[in-house]
C-alpha cells in the first residue's frame, strides 16, 4: 500500500476545520501511560483550560473521548432516565439530535419548533418550561444547519428557579463566541473540538456544575470488577458504561479510578488547542470571528448573493448564502473542491440544495484565507453562468473592509 497523500485544502465549512500546526505537532509526541505523573499533570491542566474556556469554576470540566455527539450523549444519558420529561426547542437539525438522544435514553420529549432560519424569543421557551414542567431543558446554542444563534442568556436562571436542569449544545459556538457558563447559570454545556476550537474531531470538552453532579450521582453504578463494598446502586443506574459521567468523574478526579484508556494523542492536541485559544483570549477570539464574519458577509452581498435567515440572530462562525438559481449545489461544491481545493458545506433537510454554509471557524479565520477564498469562490461561481455577479466589487469590498 502506498504512503498517505493528503492534499492541501482551504476548509470553509462548519467543521472539521484545519488545525494549527502546533496542534498537529503536539499530537505526534511520544505516548505516555495513562497514570504516568506527566500525563496526569496534562489531564489536570486540560481541566483548568476547559474551565477557563467556559468561564466557569465548575470542578467537573473534562473531555469526553469521542466526537461532539458523544459529549451530548454522555450528558443526556446521565441526566435522563426512562420517563423523564425533556423540553427540546428545535430550530434546525441539531434540535432533532437532542430529541433522538433523549428518546433513546427513554425520556419523553416535548418539542417546540420554529421554521428553519428563525430562533425563539427566550420568553417563549420560558413559557414552555412553565407549561411542560420538564426535568431538563436541552437546547442548541449555535444551530449550524441554519447558521442561527439561539439567545440563551436568560434560560439557565429560569431553569434554576423552576428546579429544571439546563443542558446546552455549544458544539459550534464554543470558543467562537463567549459562553459565560457561570454567569448564565447553565448546568451542563457541551463544546466542540473540530469547529472554532480547531483541533481534530474525536474529543469533546464538557462542563457541568455540582447541582447537575448531585443529580446524576443518584444513578451511579461503578462497573463490575472495580466495585468496592462502599459502592451501591439503585435500579435507575445510568445505562451507558462508556458515556457514564459519574464514572468519568471518578477517572477525572484524584480517585483516578480506571475507566477507559484516555486517548493520549487526542489529549495532547486538545491541551495545545485550548492553550492557544486561551492565550489568544476567549473574548479576543470571539471578536476575531465576528470581525471576519462581517467582512466576508459584506463582500458576498457585494458579489450579488443573498444571505439566508434572520439577520439579528446569525452565528458569527457560519454564513449561510442562498444558492443562486440554476446552480446545482453538489456539482458546484465538488467543482470547487476538485479544481481549487476549497470546501464549503451543504445544509440538511428542507434546506438541502437551497443554501450553502460557509464556515469561519478557528485557525482558518484570517485575512489572507478569506481573501483567497473570496477570489476563488466568486470567480468560479461567475464562470458557472450566474448572471449579475460582480467578483471585482466583492474583492474591493473585502479589501476596503480590511483597510479601514
Ligand atoms: C450544533 C452541533 N451539534 C452537534 C454536532 C455533532 O457533532 P459531531 O459530528 O462531532 O458528533 C454538530 C456537528 O456538526 C453540530 O454542529
Automatic annotation (TrEMBL):
Coiled coil: none annotated. Keywords: Aminotransferase, Pyridoxal phosphate, Transferase. InterPro entries: Aminotrans_V_dom, Aminotrans_V_PyrdxlP_BS, PyrdxlP-dep_Trfase, PyrdxlP-dep_Trfase_major, PyrdxlP-dep_Trfase_small, SP_NH2Trfase/AEP_transaminase. Pfam families: Aminotran_5. The modification N6-(pyridoxal phosphate)lysine is found at residue 195. Its cofactor is pyridoxal 5'-phosphate. SUPFAM superfamilies: PLP-dependent transferases (SSF53383). Substrate binds at residue 357. Gene3D superfamilies: Aspartate Aminotransferase, domain 1, Type I PLP-dependent aspartate aminotransferase-like (Major domain). One of its GO terms (biological process) is glycine biosynthetic process, by transamination of glyoxylate. GO terms for molecular function: alanine-glyoxylate transaminase activity; L-serine-pyruvate transaminase activity. Residues 37-350 form the Aminotransferase class V domain. Belongs to the class-V pyridoxal-phosphate-dependent aminotransferase family. PANTHER family: ALANINE--GLYOXYLATE AMINOTRANSFERASE, AMINOTRANSFERASE CLASS V. This is Aminotransferase. It comes from Staphylococcus simiae CCM 7213 = CCUG 51256.
Amino acid at each position: 500500500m502506498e504512503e498517505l497523500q493528503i492534499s492541501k485544502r482551504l476548509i470553509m465549512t462548519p467543521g472539521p476545520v484545519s488545525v494549527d500546526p502546533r496542534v498537529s505537532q503536539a499530537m505526534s509526541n511520544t505516548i505516555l501511560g495513562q497514570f504516568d505523573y506527566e500525563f496526569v499533570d496534562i489531564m489536570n491542566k486540560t481541566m483548568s483550560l476547559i474551565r477557563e474556556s467556559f468561564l466557569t469554576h465548575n470542578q467537573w470540566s473534562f473531555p469526553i473521548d469521542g466526537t461532539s455527539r458523544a459529549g451530548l450523549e454522555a450528558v443526556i444519558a446521565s441526566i435522563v432516565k426512562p420517563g423523564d420529561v425533556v423540553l427540546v426547542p428545535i430550530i434546525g437539525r441539531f434540535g432533532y439530535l437532542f430529541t433522538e438522544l433523549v428518546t433513546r435514553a427513554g425520556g419523553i420529549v416535548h418539542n417546540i419548533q420554529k421554521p428553519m432560519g428563525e430562533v425563539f424569543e427566550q420568553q417563549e421557551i420560558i413559557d414552555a418550561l412553565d407549561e411542560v414542567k420538564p426535568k431538563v431543558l436541552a437546547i442548541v446554542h449555535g444551530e449550524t444547519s441554519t447558521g442561527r444563534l439561539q439567545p440563551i442568556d436568560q434560560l439557565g436562571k429560569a431553569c434554576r428557579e423552576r428546579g429544571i436542569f439546563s443542558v446546552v449544545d455549544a458544539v459550534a459556538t464554543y470558543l467562537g463566541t463567549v459562553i459565560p457558563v457561570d454567569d448564565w447559570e447553565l448546568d451542563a454545556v457541551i463544546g466542540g473540538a473540530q469547529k472554532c476550537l480547531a483541533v481534530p474531531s474525536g474529543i469533546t470538552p464538557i462542563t457541568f456544575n455540582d447541582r447537575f453532579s448531585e443529580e446524576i450521582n443518584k444513578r451511579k453504578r461503578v462497573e463490575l470488577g472495580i466495585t468496592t463494598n462502599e459502592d451501591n446502586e439503585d435500579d435507575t443506574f445510568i445505562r451507558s458504561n462508556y458515556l457514564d459521567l459519574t464514572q468519568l468523574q471518578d477517572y477525572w478526579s484524584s480517585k483516578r479510578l480506571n475507566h477507559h484508556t484516555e486517548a493520549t494523542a487526542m489529549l495532547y492536541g486538545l491541551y495545545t488547542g485550548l492553550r492557544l485559544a486561551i492565550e489568544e483570549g476567549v473574548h479576543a477570539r470571539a471578536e476575531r470571528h465576528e470581525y471576519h464574519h462581517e467582512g466576508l458577509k459584506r463582500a458576498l452581498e457585494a458579489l450579488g448573493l443573498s444571505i439566508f435567515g434572520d439577520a439579528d440572530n446569525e452565528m458569527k462562525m457560519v454564513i449561510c448564502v442562498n444558492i443562486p438559481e440554476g446552480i446545482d449545489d453538489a456539482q458546484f461544491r465538488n467543482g470547487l473542491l476538485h479544481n481549487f481545493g476549497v470546501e464549503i458545506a451543504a445544509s440538511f433537510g428542507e434546506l438541502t440544495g437551497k443554501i450553502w454554509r460557509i464556515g469561519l471557524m478557528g485557525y482558518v479565520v484570517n485575512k489572507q484565507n478569506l481573501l483567497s477564498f473570496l477570489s476563488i469562490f466568486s470567480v468560479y461561481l461567475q464562470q458557472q453562468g450566474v448572471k449579475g455577479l460582480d467578483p471585482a466589487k466583492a474583492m474591493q469590498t473585502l479589501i476596503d473592509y480590511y483597510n479601514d
